[in-house]
Amino acid sequence: MLFSRRRPAGLLEKMRGLVWPAKGFSRPFHYYRMRILRLSASPHAVAAGIASGMMAAWTPFLGFHIVLSVVLAWIVAGDVIAAALATAFANPLTFPFIWAATWKIGTWMLGGDLAAGHHHLDLHHLLGSVGWADLWRPVIEPMLIGAIPPALVSGLFAYGLTFLLVRRYRDRRRLRLAEGARLRAGAAIHPAP
Hints:
mainly alpha
């Protein structure tokens, strides 16, 4: 096999790999960072795409985050690939925090009293009935309304940060390429004896 290991992993190494990957947890973040920085779109388009993806990730519509992010990116002239990549903000590790935050913010915005204790949700009963009308008022509506403030804040923050990082990365890359071209041109004019 082309990309197989020379020595097969033992049981202990396989078990350790389930808990802590051999390349660490930072590798996927590095991959996404480099993938975003190397997009060929303008810094505004990349930043607008990232902001669109981050904003779509706050919505409670699982399975539609990428579609929603692409539509938002198209509206604001953002890069659709960056938008799709940024929806990874919503993942199984962040879903509980996103859902809790959006539900609490939405309940507060709709005038509900969180401290009163009468907002206890029996999700098992609600999900068992699987009625859209039964889920809309107590769960989906507060989450949808509550997603607006954090989506706007994180979208603006992501836009600003991404715009600056992409511009800085491209300026530094342009300088490196110009320096390399200058060195190659100097070597061509004055060949080594």
